[in-house]
Amino acid sequence: MHFPSASKERPTSDFLRETLFNILGSLEDKKFLDIFAGSGSVGLEAASREAREVCFIEKSKELAAVIKKNIPQCCGDENFCIMASDIENALRNLFKRNIRFDIIFADPPYNRGLTQMTIELLEKYPVMDEEGVIVIQHSVKERFADGEANHIVMTKQRTYGENVLTFFKWRKKDAG
């Protein structure tokens, strides 16, 4: 897999990727969104685990080109989409096109305030299937605001050294 040596971003480690997919279980027939995709390693792993479709959001045109180069080396003829755009424009586009995902993974650059922003944008542009899950990888130094008005709620966190995997789901509507 390619990753530009001059890149200042850190890819998700093999250990965290393996842990993530062990927690998620089967991806068969799932639609997977990889936000802040970098070289695409997490989304490509999802494809290798039988995700039906994988979409990558990566702002860096250089890294989006790397994802495009990595796809044929790692996977067959899966359904892929690469959005070389910032997260807000990409999510707005997906939302307007009524595209929904079963699993959304985001690995924003650490300690830049992007973890909370990611949840806020996923609230604003809900592209998660009602039964779906959001997983955000972030630094132990970063926290999420958990307001009662939020439609997306935290369900669990797993800490691995300086890294955290935080899981969210869509809040069910009250019956009655």
Task: Characterise the protein shown here.
The chain has 176 residues and is of the alpha/beta class. The chain has one domain (25-143, 151-170): Rossmann fold (3-Layer(aba) Sandwich). It contains five helices and seven strands. The protein has helices at residues 14-24, 41-48, 61-74, 87-96, 114-124, and strands at residues 31-35, 53-57, 79-83, 101-106, 128-139, 152-160, 163-170. A seven-stranded mixed beta sheet has the order 3-2-1-4-5-7-6, sandwiched between helices. Strand 6 (152-160) and strand 7 form a beta hairpin. Helix 2 (41-48) runs parallel beside helix 3. The longest helix has 14 residues, at 61-74. It is globular, with a radius of gyration of 15 Å. The chain starts with 13 loop residues before the first helix and ends in a 6-residue tail after the last strand. The model has no long low-confidence stretch (mean pLDDT 87).
Concise structural overview:
The protein has helices at 14-24, 41-48, 61-74, 87-96, 114-124; strands spanning 31-35, 53-57, 79-83, 101-106, 128-139, 152-160, 163-170. By secondary structure, it is of the alpha/beta class.
